[in-house]
Specification:
It contains 14 helices and 17 strands. With 406 residues, it is an alpha/beta fold. The protein binds 4'-deoxy-4'-aminopyridoxal-5'-phosphate.
Length: 406
């Protein structure tokens, strides 16, 4: 065993909880992960001992918490190997990070007739902000399609790019299919054509080791709550040179260096993009979550979660009338499936009665469902605290549910 699972599970209080008097099996990690006590305790400790608004005070508590918030920024910078802490912007989550770019990059660089490319497998939060931008600017949204396995047709990217293309925004890992996209290749192709790339890392940051300098992406967005940290916090990584050319997304306190009715001068990076009181205690707790992940080691996490994925996929394939939606060669964390003639919600409801939390529906990726001509899937998504025994119990329970529903 690569990981000490018993020790890890002991860190997550919720995993000891029962639902309907059954042991909880939590397979909905793609929606949000559970939190280790190190993260929960940090939140409690800061509210109990150190709470004061940051960046504004001269008093002890304010200075203490400001320093902790800025140290968290450094932890996050190191975690993704960004060149500078100026490139780490605290947001509310992936959605907020993408909207920031769609607005600010859009204002600075997108003109009438310009083109933005996204993929067919994007989450709604990597579709709708670009549609809104295109509507505002009279620009065009183009779609990179995927094949029947759920792999992007990367060979079509060169044809999609024209001299009007300004940005490609694509997920590293699909939340509906589990596909790991070849983002390094996409970035290489984009940069050869002078096109910037935003990577939606919401389903990747918790599973795969990231080095933004090596990857050379222009933007990278992710959420704390999907990576064992608190809700309400996310990160936008952006290259300093690009961020410097973008206008602030929102106006308010913190994002200015001086204000008068005649002229306001904006603050420097990263504060220029952080209007208002930040969610500083959750920012600090998020850094704790990343430290926790680092201690286990992302290489170990990746290896272990791949074992779970392979084991579960093999077992699922023995079930009659199952179709796995998304069979890319490179996958991470997620298995989506349907059972012929049984509604995905009915399966999820029966599994719930047996203590198993799975997600059913479109997973905020309706174009993926449209591609396969289905109304939704059952989705299981793993974290490093899941076990092979839980998968065995899940398969037995799924077989029972199918028997009941047939
Ligand atoms: N992109 C992907 C691929 C996701 O899976 C999600 C969350 N399901 C998001 C973006 C949005 O993340 P959040 O709701 O944390 O902003």
């Amino acid at each position: 065993m690569i990981l000490d699972i018993n020790k890890i599970r002991a860190d997550f209080p919720i995993l000891k909880e029962k639902v309907y008097n059954k042991n909880l099996v939590y397979f909905d990690n793609g929606a949000t992960t559970q939190k280790p006590k190190q993260v929960i305790d940090t939140i409690s400790e800061y509210y109990s001992k150190y709470n004061a608004n940051i960046h504004r005070g001269v008093h002890f508590l304010s200075n203490f918490t400001t320093e902790a918030n800025e140290n968290s920024r450094k932890t996050i910078q190191n975690f993704i190997n960004a060149k500078s802490e100026k490139e780490i912007i605290f947001t509310k989550g992936t959605t907020d990070s993408i909207n920031l770019v769609a607005f600010s990059f859009g204002e600075a660089f997108i003109n009438e007739g310009d083109e933005i490319i996204i993929s067919e497998m994007e989450h709604h939060s990597n579709i709708v902000p670009w549609q809104m931008l295109c509507e505002r600017k009279n620009a065009k949204l183009k779609i990179l399609k995927f094949n029947e396995l759920g792999e992007l047709k990367i060979e079509e990217l060169n044809e999609l790019i024209t001299n009007k293309t300004k940005l490609i925004s694509v997920s590293q890992v699909s939340n509906a299919l589990g596909t790991v996209n070849p983002i390094k290749k996409i970035i290489e192709i984009a940069h050869k054509n002078n096109v910037k790339v935003l990577v939606d890392g919401a389903q990747a940051i918790q599973h795969l080791k990231l080095d933004v300098q090596e990857l050379d992406c222009d933007f990278y967005a992710f959420s704390s709550h999907k990576a064992y940290g608190p809700t309400g916090v996310g990160i936008l990584y952006g290259k300093e040179e690009v961020l410097n050319k973008m206008h602030p997304y929102q106006g308010g306190g913190e994002m200015i260096s001086s204000v008068s009715f005649e002229k306001t001068i904006y603050n420097e990076l990263p504060f220029k993009f952080e209007a208002g009181t930040p969610n500083y205690i959750d920012n600090i707790a998020f850094a704790k979550a990343l430290e926790y992940i680092s201690e286990i080691g992302l290489e170990n996490i990746e290896k272990y979660e791949n074992q779970l994925l392979e084991y579960c996929t093999k077992k699922l394939k023995t079930i009659e009338n199952i179709k796995i939606i998304g069979e890319a060669k490179e996958k991470s964390g997620v298995i989506s499936f349907i059972i012929k003639n049984i509604h995905h919600n009915d399966i999820a409801i029966l599994l719930d009665q047996m203590g198993i939390a799975v997600r059913s529906g479109t997973h905020c990726a309706e174009p993926v469902m449209q591609h396969f001509g289905i109304s939704g899937t059952v989705r299981i998504s793993f974290a490093f605290y899941n076990t092979l025994e839980e998968i065995d119990y899940f398969i037995t329970s799924l077989n029972k549910a199918i028997l009941m529903l047939q």
